[in-house]
Give the backbone structure.
Amino acid sequence: MSDDIQKVIIQLPASAEYVDIVRLNLYGIASKMGFSYEDIEDMKVAVSEACNNSVLYAYEQEDGLVDVIFEVSPNALSITVKDEGESFDNVKASGERMTLHDKELSDVQVGGLGFYLMQALMDEVNVISESGKGTVVTLTKKLHLSEERV
Amino acid sequence: MNTHKSEKFHVTTKTEDGVCTVYLRGELDLSVAADFRLVMEPLVEDTALNLAINMKELKYIDSTGIGILLSILKARHGLAVKFTVEEVPPHIQKLFDMTGIAKFFASQENSH
């Protein structure tokens, strides 16, 4: 394999019914690269959360599109989820360090876990959100080749 | 391990000995969240029965699904009735541990 980064790009309607298509593509690409079962599960959750944000917050009631770009390099997989809707600054601000660990059941708020999961499950998370220009989330997982193959 | 197969989300319930058990199959994500919430609503409000969710055949859950479980925990806690989860697959338990929802399930296990 050359050192060049190879790209797989898919474009989908910003609709909840299509998020599983992203997971299926992710599974195909990540298993081909040799990621472990556990790493693939982690990426599935993180990528779905990024897509959920685009589906839920980017386009309100209007139709929109989400671009998902898989960048395959010899030692890492980066997945970029991109929309051109409203930015999700608010979601990020409210969700960033939200976990339930130090809370009582009566105090917890439902929601805000998605962003936390992305950060916890990936090696790198980059969010660029510009008002009116949409949101670009890039998630990276490093490839540690091991015995356990899918 | 056939986890790459997208399996349609499916719910069945069984009531026995004062416990209503809800069996989940497939992927619980944003696309089925509203349906799941609807199915659970009357069961959550039923204080005559203990409520349990069996996750043996659950392949995937996202933060929307975890959010629903959290609202069920809150509602059942408010009504002072039991809500537990059983046969949680390891990759889902990992998410429960990470988010911190696991401790609420654990405290339900120990209460009577």
Summary: Chain B has one domain: 2-109. The first helix of chain B runs from residue 33 to 45.
